[in-house]
Amino acid sequence: MKVKGFLLLILLVISSIGFSVLGFVFRDGIYARYKQAYLDAPVLTEVFNGVADAVYPWSQEKPVQVAVSVPKVPKNEQTAQKVPVVKTRQYTTVDDSYFDDALFIGDSRMVGLSEYCQELDDRATFYAKKSLTIYDIKEKAWIKTEDGSKITLWQALEGQQFSKIYIMVGINELGTGDENYFKDAYQEVINMLRQAQPNAVIFINSIMHVSGEKNENDALYNNTNINIRNAAIKELADGQNVFYININEAVDDEEGNLNSEWTSDGIHLKGANYEPWHEYLLSHGILTDE
């Protein structure tokens, strides 16, 4: 009896080893679904669990099917919502009556437009001053009243509403800060105008170029610096409420400089040569009732 018991023990040990080997060899195959951590249960347990399900080493391996729950999408949400496309408002040709409710703000070049373009001066309002800068517009009292005192633009706008506002400054700012500093101040002014005149379309007029001679001989007031500033403020236009109009298209020569025949100092237009600017404005109107 002792011999039989010893043989039985040996048989159990050999069987355990055999089942463990089977479990180890096939634990990533036929017994993959029964796999457990080594510390949680011996490998042979995986074989016994498989046998309980009639799974043997010679059984054909079957893929494990995993049920995936796919959420139902309501019919009204099955089609992706369409993002509304905002179209850029297009320029159109207008007549001089278009400027009846327009405001022009600017430096000496804008002063010249009011002095030498009677069609605009008779209809529009001009707040223009020699040497005016975007920084003056933002915070200084520079508009003269009838009693000789000065007020800020924001005080002047109280009780008035315009549907178009034209701005031209920039030549006097070339020696102050860089283009980003200039652009940030310009953006602040636009934001303030939008708040004070919410129904107005704002037109950013490009900084007018200087003549070829001025461009070649002036380290500061040249068209390279002007173009850098123009590129910066052009980015402020949104095609809906704020527009950039390149006046240089109307007054430049073939080389991209202010037409030398139209200026006496290389910076300002002669009195008889403001008409191209006027005509350009007439061809770049935005209908406010669109």
Explain the overall architecture.
It is a single chain. This protein is an alpha/beta fold and 290 residues long. The protein contains 12 helices and 7 strands. The strands form 2 sheets. A 5-stranded parallel sheet has the order 2-1-5-6-7, with helices on both faces. Strand 3 and strand 4 form a beta hairpin. The longest helix has 24 residues.
Short recap of the structure:
By secondary structure, the protein is of the alpha/beta class.
Strand arrangement across the biggest beta sheet: 2-1-5-6-7
Low-confidence parts: none
Quickly count the helices.
Answer: 12
How many strand segments? 7
Oligomer: single chain
Which band does the percent of strand residues land in?
A: 5-15%
Return Rg in Å: 41 Å
**Average pLDDT score:** 84
Shape: elongated
Instruction: Spell the H/E element sequence.
Output: HHHEHHEHEEHEHEHHEHH
Sheet of most strands? 5 strands, parallel
- Computed structural class: alpha/beta
Distance between the termini: 109 Å
Helix content: 25-40%
